[in-house]
């Protein structure tokens, strides 16, 4: 099977109240672990690739690995640019074979974000590529952040609805209180914002910063209208912890396969547990 746009599975996720995982690809072992877990559970999924990961892996290898995974698995897999910063980088990815892109215009003014996102949607749609937009700032949650400051970064439902209506994105990331990276405490997720936006638009809300969010909060988010959840840090932690443990156990190891195999196996378990939690098993 060829790579598909997110529209192959997101409408079904929205209608049937499950979420599709975006698991970020950082190297070959990540890509293999993610697809192995998805094969086992017959789940659609999204390979997320940040601009940093793209630089690290190279765009040709990134696309080739994702295409190989789609061919081997027969699963609906989207290859998605994560937090694309410009029209140019989005087009570069589409030309190289990405089936989906995120344009993150959240650091622009609201009107400018709408204008730039619309341009990406117009170009991407013509090529059958899906687009994720972002509204509000998804940052790092600090323990000492004041409530006012926190709320200042959250998406306003009426703005999110207008953003959707004007841009026609295929899914919308809104700042609802989650953050990238691991949490010091528990995140404070504003389910009311998710629900207000999700009820008013036909496409799913995207939850960034899904690593370390308690399972119950994930279930509540999906019930409120989240249809795509991004996970990266938990796989990075599982990978690195296992490499560290393998090296600590045997100082004479020099064959990378000896420490990358347990790392990859640990990531398979992380991804399987997320797929089960998100409810996307048997939805391929
Ligand atoms: Zn993100």
UniProtKB/TrEMBL annotation:
GO terms for molecular function: fructose-bisphosphate aldolase activity. The keyword Iron does not apply. Keywords: Lyase, Metal-binding, Zinc. Its cofactor is Zn(2+). Its EC number is 4.1.2.13. This is Class II fructose-1,6-bisphosphate aldolase. It comes from Paenibacillus phytorum. The gene is fba.
